[in-house]
Amino acid sequence: MNLKRFLMVTALMLPLLLLSLPAIAQEEEEEEETVAEETEEAAEEAQFKDTPYFSGMPKYRIIDSGDREFDEYRFYNGKDCTTIEGRKMFRSYMMSEGSEQASELQIIRNYESAVRNMGGTVIFDGICEGANCAINCGYRMLTGKVLKGDNELWVEIVAFNDGFEYYLTLIVKEAMKQDVTASGMIEALNRDGKVTLYINFDFGKATIRPDSRPIIEQIVQMMKTNPELLLGVEGHTDNVGDSAANILLSENRANAVKAAIVAENIDGSRLSAVGFGEDKPVADNGTEEGRAKNRRVELVKAGKGSTETATVQKNKIQFGVEIYPGAALDDAQTKFAREVMGQEIYCYRTGDNIKKVVAFYQKQTALSVLGEDETSALFSLQAEGNSVRIAIASPWLDPQTGESHTDTMIQILKVE
């Protein structure tokens, strides 16, 4: 091609090339915008993640989140609000574009199943109305509680905008922990006559959770190191739920602790178990913190205030009267009572509830009931020309120290 022809072809094509440049630039610009949008979405996804405990609904994306190492939140419980402190997580979810919208009820039911599948309980499910303490009152709401390892998880789900959006608020409350040692417990028992333990059970059950096994191990170690030690295991609950059910639950839990100790080759006659339900709170049941303190197990030393160690009664019959199973002979109380009264008398103690003890003696048909009320009972037995009196009391007052005791005292007196 000669120079003249080349210049002519170039002159003809140049306008076409110039016309195509804006289109090429626009395509490159659109590509850059797409890449930027994808980068922004990827960054948003990296920034917003589900909580470690509850994930988002399918086809919903997180549009806002906020985590705080320590904060508080008011959870609606159906009547008022329960304030929980701990690590706080918040997530705001919105339906993704082009996705089929879920209903508010579907969102609530999804998280209700999640709570129950984790072994938790639903505290409230419905429309919150008239509760000024609840931040999101007026909407469809779910409040749930789950025990997860050493933590309590409190979660609130609020669905709104016909299910187009919902909020998830979570507080991770660290469970009450104790540094429990055998030496520390025996020191407290010798000083105070009892030690308070926070043993974790499955919710609403008497199954000891694995994270509380170390406490049981320390109790066992203490009892092996102190072979003369006699203990009453007392179960206590908060005031949530039916009173009768709470007494049964506390008794079952006390027996579960006793069984766990006996399973480690500790003589069961050294232990008794009783449940008091919600009857003996040590803190305000009006707060979650107070209720947590009231859900406890206490080990009570038999013979507290005695100058001599109580011993397990080996004889099952005393003066023709069958002795309450597992009751311990309190040597010091027996010695003092004999000195004061000048008669043969034996004093026994048990951590079991007085109603249970009285019921045991009521079944002995040879005994006559002389009197009975909520805190005491008196029986008699006529045998071989002798009169025997059986006095039962709880609580009772130590005549030597003036100290009040919450276990049950059984006195068997022979009147010649």
How is the topology of this model organized?
Elements: H1 3-47, E1 60-76, E2 81-95, H2 104-117, E3 121-127, E4 140-148, E5 151-160, E6 165-174, H3 182-192, E7 194-197, H4 213-225, E8 231-236, H5 243-262, E9 271-275, H6 288-294, E10 296-301, E11 311-312, E12 317-318, E13 321-322, E14 328-329, H7 331-341, E15 345-350, H8 354-362, E16 368-372, E17 376-383, E18 386-393, E19 396-397, E20 404-405, E21 408-415
Helix pairs in contact: 3-4, 4-5
Give a short synopsis of this structure.
It is built from eight helices and 21 strands.
Looking at this protein, list some descriptive labels.
single chain; 416 residues; alpha+beta; Protein Transport Mog1p, Chain A; 60s Ribosomal Protein L30, Chain: A; TATA-Binding Protein; 3 domains; 7-stranded antiparallel beta sheet; 6-stranded antiparallel beta sheet; 8 helices; 31% helix
How would you describe this protein?
The protein has 416 residues and is of the alpha+beta class. The chain has 3 domains: 60-173, Protein Transport Mog1p, Chain A (3-Layer(aba) Sandwich), CATH 3.40.1000; 182-301, OmpA-like domain (60s Ribosomal Protein L30, Chain: A, 2-Layer Sandwich); 311-415, TATA-Binding Protein (2-Layer Sandwich). The protein is 31% helix and 33% strand. It has helices at 3-47, 104-117, 182-192, 213-225, 243-262, 288-294, 331-341, 354-362, and strands at residues 60-76, 81-95, 121-127, 140-148, 151-160, 165-174, 194-197, 231-236, 271-275, 296-301, 311-312, 317-318, 321-322, 328-329, 345-350, 368-372, 376-383, 386-393, 396-397, 404-405, 408-415. The protein has a 7-stranded antiparallel β-sheet. A 6-stranded antiparallel β-sheet has the order 1-2-6-5-4-3, covered by helices on one side. The chain is elongated, with a radius of gyration of 35 Å. It starts with a helix and ends with a strand. The model is unreliable at 16-21 and 304-315 (pLDDT under 50).
